[in-house]
Description:
By secondary structure, the chain is mainly alpha-helical.
Amino acid sequence: MKSPLSLERMIQFSQLMLKFQDVVRAFYLPRGNKENDVEHSYHLAMMAWYLNSAGELGYDTDRLIRYALLHDLVEAYVGDVHAFDAAGRVGKDKREAAAVLRFESEFPESRDMAPMMQAYMSHADPEAKFVYALDKLMPMIMIYLDNGRTWREDGFRFEVIHDVQASKIALSEPVDALYQQLRQIFERRPELFATS
């Protein structure tokens, strides 16, 4: 028998979504502000759906969208860690695994959400790998669209970015193919990056 929907639980879940929205990411968008996790997750979901359809990639669109919407939800509990923050990344996997368990205990009625988070984190299937790789590429697209402001302000050269992200993007062949196209643009646009 189905459980009746609860307004109180809806409000509690909405409070979690507001915490999720309060997580601000490390780079600027072209409109001048920094992206938050809700904006990022929505954009990632739409992009995954678009690329799957446009490229006729054959992925399960429902899984792509679910992974994209959930992929950073743990950050509502533990915050975001910049990809280039080596000290902050120590223990990140454990903190995020604990956050999934916390979510599962706080929202047990959302039976399929925590398993989806765990499947994403373990790269359990091609859809998870696709979204994971796309999640690493999308900030590069956003920073490119903002003419490299974040990279210049943070002092990043392309080589550093490539060293950190390339192997993660390579988990998905279609996303890696897009990254290789973007690399060609970066090679022609050194002004996007810090000079030293």
